[in-house]
């Protein structure tokens, strides 16, 4: 913003008094000048041919992240445990501890394993977790092997939550931040976030209606959506790990 002295002082404070900041300062200035030369993006620009695959990737990941059932299951975990006959308090403690541990362990793995493998492993785990939970409620509804119902329910939910925390929770946001050219990042990111929160509302709003219709059917639907997410990631989503924006754009828009 023309405050060069303050800019350099802030950068030196961040990097250390003895650090050589000249190269980084020049790169930041070049980035800003490049950004200012580019035309201001509008929402309709997202539908230009050169951006359409980036939009499909980012919006698709957001749709699958939410419509795979995460907010319905998260918001109503205690209700799920209660319906399955598992102690609610104990179930919620296990749930919270598992989520924190898996998320913490996953943080250093992201740049080593890559985005696409984590998405695939995560989506596969989501399918398995949904199917286990579906089996639990199927047994409960049909009065079969009742002693196994609580155990299967808690195992299914824990597999689901652990799998979500391992990849599908964070990776759509990471890929979204990497997939768009700098001139449309703001508009595209805002629209992708809108899609994400619309999905969060839709899933949390419909969850109880679906459970009233069919408890095991609800989880089968979520399993099917997460299975489609696996296909989507394999076919559409590129690996962005370690790639520059130019390299990513060459893959997305060959």
From TrEMBL:
Record's keyword terms, sorted: Membrane, Sugar transport, Transmembrane, Transmembrane helix, Transport
Superkingdom of origin organism: Eukaryota
Topology versus the membrane: Multi-pass membrane protein
Gene3D superfamilies registered for this protein in UniProt: MFS general substrate transporter like domains
SUPFAM superfamilies linked: MFS general substrate transporter (SSF103473)
Domain Major facilitator superfamily (MFS) profile: from-to ranges: 1-241
Residue intervals passing through the bilayer: 51-78, 90-110, 117-139, 151-175, 187-207, 219-237
Keyword Magnesium in annotation: no
Pfam families the record matches: Sugar_tr
Compartments reported by the entry: Membrane
Entry-linked InterPro entries: MFS_dom, MFS_sugar_transport-like, MFS_trans_sf, MFS_Trehalose_Transporter, Sugar/inositol_transpt
Family: Belongs to the major facilitator superfamily. Sugar transporter (TC 2.A.1.1) family.
Protein name: Sugar transporter ERD6-like 7
Taxonomic lineage of the native organism: Eukaryota, Viridiplantae, Streptophyta, Embryophyta, Tracheophyta
Gene (name only): LOC104788712
């Amino acid at each position: 913003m023309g405050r060069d002295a303050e800019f350099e002082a802030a950068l030196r404070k961040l990097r250390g008094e003895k650090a050589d900041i000249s190269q980084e300062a020049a790169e930041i200035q070049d980035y800003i000048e490049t950004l200012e030369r580019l035309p201001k993006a509008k929402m309709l620009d997202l539908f230009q041919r050169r951006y359409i695959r980036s939009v499909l990737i980012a919006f698709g990941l957001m749709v699958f992240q939410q419509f795979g059932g995460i907010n319905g299951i998260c918001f109503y975990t205690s209700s799920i445990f209660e319906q399955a006959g598992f102690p609610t308090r104990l179930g919620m403690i296990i749930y919270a501890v598992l989520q924190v541990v898996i998320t913490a362990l996953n943080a250093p793995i992201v740049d080593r394993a890559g985005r696409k493998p984590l998405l695939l492993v995560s989506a596969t785990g989501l399918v398995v977790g949904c199917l286990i939970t579906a089996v639990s409620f199927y047994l409960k509804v049909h009065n079969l092997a009742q002693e196994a119902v609580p155990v299967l329910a808690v195992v299914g939910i824990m597999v689901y939550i652990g799998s979500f925390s391992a990849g599908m929770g964070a990776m759509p946001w990471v890929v979204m931040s990497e997939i768009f050219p700098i001139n449309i990042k703001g508009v595209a990111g805002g629209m992708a976030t809108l899609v994400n929160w619309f999905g969060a509302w839709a899933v949390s709003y419909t969850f109880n209606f679906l459970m009233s219709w069919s408890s095991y059917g609800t989880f089968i639907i979520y399993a099917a959506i997460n299975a489609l997410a696996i296909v989507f990631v394999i076919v559409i989503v590129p690996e962005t790990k370690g790639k520059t924006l130019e390299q990513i754009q060459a893959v997305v828009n060959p």
